[in-house]
Write a structure and sequence with these properties.
Its main location: secreted. GO terms for molecular function: manganese ion binding. Strands 4-5-12-7-10 form a 5-stranded antiparallel sheet, with no helix packed on it. It has a 5-stranded antiparallel sheet with strand order 9-8-11-6-13. It has a 3-stranded antiparallel sheet with strand order 1-3-2, with no helix packed on it. With 221 residues, the protein is of the alpha+beta class. It has 2 domains: 130 residues, Jelly Rolls; 32 residues, no CATH class. The radius of gyration is 21 Å and the shape is globular. The protein has 4 helices and 13 strands. About 7% of the residues have low confidence.
């Protein structure tokens, strides 16, 4: 039994080691859309290092405000591996988040990344909720220059409580962190989740559920 316990521990450690973006074993592995490449890492083919140039590690445009004319009044400009090929295997990405007055980056999760946020302009109410069974809310009012961290996988949000636009930048611990916006995923899935499931899960009547599904329904169906 002691030997079996050691084996289980080693397996768990191995699984934990692969729970995040793997550490690179080379200087870089610039992503390229070319299936002739012999190297394939993190879902991307790698450019031959002999042909890598400085522009492979460059993204321009984060000085440009995002369009916040939408129901949430916010815009996320994400710089991940799809926009910056040099990020492949490096385990990081970056985002610019613009908020209209009283704009909201609604409750969402990043399944593959911890997020660290710095406020550049404005005042943001931010928070995250721990997992079951506690569902404890940690929340804070952030001002210019303040930094806050959202643990990997936990539901979190940012809300501009000011009358002027706000701006923040976020670093994320994955080259492709992913994002699941809770309301969109639950009420706007394609095809829709059964009304019976949602009425029971949220303890709402059917009319409310169908109304919410209409609000979040993608234009594709």
């Amino acid at each position: 039994m002691k030997g079996f316990g050691i084996v289980v521990l080693l397996v768990l450690q191995s699984l934990l080691a692969f729970a995040f973006d793997p550490s690179p074993l080379q200087d870089f592995c610039v992503a390229i859309n070319d299936d002739r490449s012999p190297v394939f890492v993190n879902g991307k083919f790698c450019k031959d290092p002999k042909f890598v140039v400085a522009n492979d590690f460059l993204f321009q445009g984060l000085n440009i405000p995002g369009n916040t004319e939408n129901p949430n009044g916010s815009n996320v400009t994400l710089v991940n591996v799809d926009k910056l090929p040099g990020l492949n295997t490096l385990g990081i990405s970056l985002a610019r988040i613009d908020y209209a007055p009283y704009g909201l980056n609604p409750p969402h999760t990043h399944p593959r990344a911890t997020e660290i946020l710095v406020v550049v302009e404005g005042t943001l109410l931010v928070g995250f909720v721990t997992s079951n069974p506690d569902n404890k809310l940690f929340t804070k009012l952030l001002y210019k220059g303040d930094v806050f961290v959202f643990p990997i996988g936990l539901i979190h949000f940012q809300f501009n409580v000011g009358r002027t636009p706000a701006l923040a930048f976020a670093g994320l611990g994955s080259q492709n962190p992913g994002a699941i916006t809770i309301a969109n995923a639950v009420f706007g899935s394609n095809p829709p989740i059964s009304v019976d499931v949602l009425t029971k899960a949220f303890r709402l009547n059917e009319d409310v559920v169908t109304y919410l599904q209409r609000q979040f329904r993608p234009s594709s169906y």
